[in-house]
Design brief:
Blueprint: H1 4-38, H2 47-81, H3 87-112
Helix pairs in contact: 1-2, 2-3
Length: 127
């Protein structure tokens, strides 16, 4: 049976996964908006709202990455106390760091993506 800390970590994972679904839905909507713009059709959002949503989505993704880093450290420490194999947790921690770096870069790209005429030139990656 899992102890309370492991169950809490699983609860945090569920929360993170739900937020990940939300960011995916936002990314789909933003990508559809870009498609409409590329087809010279009426878009769902103007450039300012698009940029705000894009920032918001990337910040959420970065927060999720930090959450999963926290969860991985918790599970690593629990496994360490139980003298279990730590290799998978070590790899997950490295992956979390890389995801955080990618999230920071994605936010930076959004900050560079507006041209002088206010046109937003940004992709919507899911991390």
């Amino acid at each position: 049976m899992k102890d309370k800390e492991e169950v809490r970590a699983i609860d945090y994972q569920l929360i993170g996964l739900i937020i990940t679904l939300i960011t995916t839905i936002i990314a789909i909507i933003l990508t559809y908006n870009e498609k409409l713009q590329a087809q010279n059709r009426k878009t769902l959002f103007n450039n300012k709202i698009f940029l705000i949503l894009s920032y918001f989505n990337r910040i959420l993704i970065l927060l999720i990455a930090f959450l999963f880093l926290y969860i991985n450290y918790k599970l690593y420490n629990i496994s360490k106390q139980k003298h279990e194999d730590l290799k998978s947790y070590q790899l997950q921690i490295v992956a979390s760091y890389l995801t955080i770096i990618a999230g920071i870069i994605a936010i930076y790209v959004v900050s560079l993506s507006t041209s002088d005429n206010g046109i937003v030139d940004v992709e919507n990656p899911n991390i």
